[in-house]
Design goal:
Length: 327
Amino acid sequence: MKTPVHIAITGAAGQISYALAFRLIAGDLAGPDQPLVLHLLEVPEAMLPMKGVAMELMDCASPLLADVIISSDPREAFDGADLVFLIGAKPRGPGMERRDLLQINAEIFAVQGQALNQAAKRGVKVLVVGNPANTNAMIALRNAPDLAPENFSAMTRLDHNRAVSQLASHCGCGTGAISRVAVWGNHSITQYPDLHHARVSGAPALEQVEQDWFRNQFIPVVQKRGAAVIEARGKSSAASAAHAALECMRDWMFGTPADDWVSMAVVSDGSYGVTPGLVYSFPVTVADGRYAIVPELPINQFSHVRMHLTEAELIAERDMVQHLFRY
């Protein structure tokens, strides 16, 4: 029997976490022979529904589920964690601006960053899903001085998957024919889904689609897909978000294909002129559990403008919350 992997999930009674947890105990992340211990974190007032989630997980009788630990204390939940999904965050309510949401959630992620610093394993992989994800990730890592910035990422995999799906649908092919799509910047409507380097069945994507479709339909559809789901479903994306979180973490653990990359929001090292320290989505490759920003892609003026528009939004968000940074 392998040593169990310890996986912490915040907002564990919520829709995304609920969809994710049962995929984990089915072996969809770490494999069909890898046991795991789930650490479920919720706010005190949600402990009863979280207990119900834990009961359901146990009732699955999965041979992979070694234990379920429930808690309202972040330090206890993150104790010994190998992998962490920071999903819990207050959603935007009627009349709320993005600025309001950021200020409310900032304190949550500062506390969780401190708890990760105290309790998680030094090689922990922390994927921030709760919005505004990029800046929440920056807050968490800036409150975890004993963890490396490379321990943290924010999820833009759902945006990446949406871009792949839209391109495949337009070209009349399966998603397996699509490669090298990139999502740059913030997980917000300023994000830039980019097809300049994308391939469809190995051929350049922009030779197979119309420029008007790319600029005036594809980009805004991907940017606003979350709102479209809410309008149609009456609720925000849950199962697709959980699937994207699982895929992102799995690639982070086991690597990306040799001829492709994925989109991850990671700490900028200044690549492509992006302000160092921002958590910004880049195309990345992963090997041996470490991601690397894809270097030296040619960037035209159209892309340059959009990449720096979303960077400007992240700078503004950083400036609103930097009073919470411990280092």
